[in-house]
Specification:
6-stranded mixed sheet, about 130 residues, 4-stranded antiparallel sheet
Length: about 130
């Protein structure tokens, strides 16, 4: 079995109920950042707390590519998902045959293998229709 490696440390965590994205929140003004920021881009405060995000969101926009890329075989989808915390996340979308994408549909984050590289499974977050 290949070693599982996160595509970016600190972006998500896996738990018994599934995956969750990890943002951070400024302790001074409350601004949220995903992916995490080193300091608050709104007030420049340097004290930020980790803030797990909700697992579900709403599809804002998407595209389906039919050309191959380095790591994604066609067709593959990418899109923006609005989270209840007020963040809009750009991410790969999981194509499910019986659930075509529709703007406004409910989506859920899952953690899965994005691709393999040098004998390692690169793990990342994708959104799939609920």
């Amino acid at each position: 079995m290949a070693e599982r490696v996160p595509i970016r440390e600190g972006t998500f965590q896996e738990g018994p109920d599934g995956g969750v994205l990890l943002a951070n929140k400024c302790t001074s003004c409350g601004q949220l950042f995903f992916p995490k920021a080193k300091l608050c881009l709104a007030c420049l405060h340097e004290d930020l707390d980790e803030a797990p995000l909700g697992r579900k969101g709403t599809l804002y926009s998407y595209t389906i590519a039919h050309m191959p890329s380095s790591f994604f075989p066609p067709p593959h989808a990418m899109g923006y998902v609005d989270l209840p915390e007020g963040l809009r996340v750009f991410a790969p979308l999981k194509i499910v045959d019986d659930k075509p994408f529709d703007v406004g549909m409910e989506m859920e984050v899952v953690i899965e293998k994005i691709w393999e590289f040098e004998g390692k499974e690169l793990m990342g977050y994708v959104f799939k229709p609920v």
